[in-house]
Amino acid sequence: MLQAKLEDGRLILLASHQKEQIHNFRKQRFFCPACRKSVIIRAGKKIIPHFAHEQIHDCELNKTGESLYHMRGKLQLFHWLKKQGYAVRLEECVKDSARRPDLLLHTSSGRELAIEYQCASISDEELMRRNEAYERNEIFPIWILGGNRLKRTSTYMFDLPKREQRFLMQHKQNMPLQLLYYCSDTETLCNVQHILLTGKKQTVGQFFFRPLQSLRFPQIFQPLPKNLSEINQAWHSVQARAIAKPLTYAPVAMKRWVMRLYDNGLLLQDIPLSILQPVETQYQMSVPPYIWQTDMWLEVLNHLSVTESISLKRLMYTCRKWEVATKPFAISSNKHPVQSYMQRLCQHGWFDQIDSDTFVKKKGLSLF
């Protein structure tokens, strides 16, 4: 932990003191802010001055197992916010809870933000417990992932496993999906926006790397310019490779879907790329877009005559079996992926949207 209490109750942030002061602090007793048990000073040439429990025991602050990378980044973010005039505290306890976020920011409007700098993996259950504790106390959580977790594979591609997708954010309706990464080694923040999920860990996104000290806090929640053609090209390339590759190790449900294609006289490679469209709300689906989008065509869209209408509710009912039970916590949009997909088809001339719930077919697809 970065701070502890003296016997008189004063909270000491050890890393903010000079070497001589830290030496003098060794003569005094310090206590853990969470469990009140005795802690000792850890300081040296190669480590950030901090406190540690004298003995291993069950304490909220003792469970994290902070790395030097994490501790340094938390401290850098703390000083960055302080320089901008924000009222921010390290490891402050949330009332009616044992939760101690890395940083708790108190805004001038009275709103509180919990900033978690997450450098290690955590379970779904732990993430849910933390978010629920913040929600009960009307605290908005902001998750910043460690730069060590960013696995970039090309200019517009990175690997984002299902577990990492839980940290997707969209704080306002007009904001694109985003992820935040911070590297405490280079003091650089990476804002990944315009994210398109492919249904696998391969993910399309646009990367914006900026030195932390050149940014102000509100800037990380503003939409950044989008290279539309390059992003769409990257997404379509991934989909083309996916349907060209045999699903040897696919789950049983997906293999059944492939057999359904066979029953319709189609191979996986026969799926026309023109009907596969990226949607930002793909996180609501348990299978890749080429599965549920093709399924919609086979089930409903292909059977419609030109000028015939179909309701959005009917299409959403068709895809209900592919929906996931849980969604990322910090997403403000309630838009369904089927709605996004149909609007994409309208843009490409397949359908017209008559009202919020009705679409009319404009042209057919000969392959189906």
Automatic annotation (TrEMBL):
According to the entry, every stretch annotated as the Competence protein CoiA-like N-terminal domain falls at 15-61
Q: Where is the Competence protein CoiA nuclease-like domain?
A: 66-223
Annotated ranges, domain Competence protein CoiA C-terminal: 233-364
Domain of life of the organism encoding this protein: Bacteria
Name by which UniProt lists this protein: Competence protein CoiA-like family, contains a predicted nuclease domain
Q: Which organism is it from?
A: Terribacillus saccharophilus
